[in-house]
Write a sequence for this structure.
């Protein structure tokens, strides 16, 4: 029996959307208030969806203790209360939530062995959210 | 094809324990969830059905009928129950949210006639939910 389990986490960080490949005027035109030179912050909600057969002995798809430990150690401790623009991961890339989504997916995909990773979803605010499924197919 | 989702809430208690595991293993794997006195949650259930829109009624499914089926087959059996002790599925299976989603699917699936069941989503807390699509 295959089931999908989703766990939510929260962290707070700041960022500024600005690309050195574009002129200042272009940056303002494209990123608007997100281009404010001093940056701004969000309370990000991160959803990690994993899937797999429900283990007959434990009744679980994934041991939550292991997932929590991984996310706390590899993601929350690295990103919480940081300015994303100052992190090496965003030295070249603009810290949009799209890029953040792909980055977090890659960290989980490479390091977490407790279950199959399906999807990473971010809520940047109550009004917008972003999803990355890697190479997997989106469920109908 | 249109998808329709109906939500419901129920409250129940449970604990996690596998008699095949030693006391230490149960404690290590299930942690505070293994306390045999149980603990409770306010569960939120989302049932998604799919079907074609009936040209005469404009409905995928009669919502009143879906609500009644959910109440009769699921809520009456689970709400304000100790899952391990009062719900037959969990006399043997551990009442994890995963197994709860599967049990709810199995209770609902044969009872829905007009629309087909697409997904059962069970929130144990606002930060944790399980989806079951009926996949083997």
């Amino acid at each position: 029996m295959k089931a999908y389990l989703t766990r939510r986490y929260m962290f707070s960080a700041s960022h500024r959307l600005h690309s050195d490949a574009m002129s200042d005027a272009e940056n303002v035109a494209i990123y608007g208030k997100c281009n404010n030179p001093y940056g701004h912050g969000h309370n990000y909600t991160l959803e990690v969806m994993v899937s797999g057969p429900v283990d007959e002995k434990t009744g679980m798809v994934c041991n939550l203790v292991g997932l929590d430990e991984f996310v706390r150690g590899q993601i929350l401790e690295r990103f919480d209360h940081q300015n994303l623009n100052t992190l090496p991961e965003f030295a070249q890339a603009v810290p949009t939530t799209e890029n953040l989504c792909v980055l977090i997916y890659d960290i989980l995909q490479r390091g977490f062995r407790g279950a199959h990773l399906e999807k990473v979803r971010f809520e940047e605010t109550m009004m917008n959210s972003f999803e990355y499924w890697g190479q997997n197919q989106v469920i109908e | 094809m249109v998808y329709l989702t109906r939500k419901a809430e129920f409250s129940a208690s449970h604990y996690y324990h596998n008699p095949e595991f030693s006391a230490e293993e149960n404690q290590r794997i299930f942690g505070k969830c293994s306390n045999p006195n149980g603990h409770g949650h306010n569960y939120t259930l989302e049932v998604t059905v799919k079907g074609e829109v009936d040209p005469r009624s404009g409905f995928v499914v009669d919502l009143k009928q879906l609500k009644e089926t959910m109440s009769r087959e699921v809520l009456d059996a689970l709400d304000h129950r100790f899952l391990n002790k009062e719900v037959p599925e969990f006399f043997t299976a551990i009442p994890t949210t995963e197994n709860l989603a599967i049990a709810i699917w199995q209770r609902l699936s044969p009872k829905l006639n007009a629309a087909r069941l697409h997904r059962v989503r069970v929130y144990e807390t606002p930060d944790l939910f399980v989806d079951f699509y009926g996949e083997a």
Q: What stands out?
A: The mean pLDDT of chain A is 92. Strands of chain A lie at 2-15, 40-53, 82-83, 116-125, 128-132.
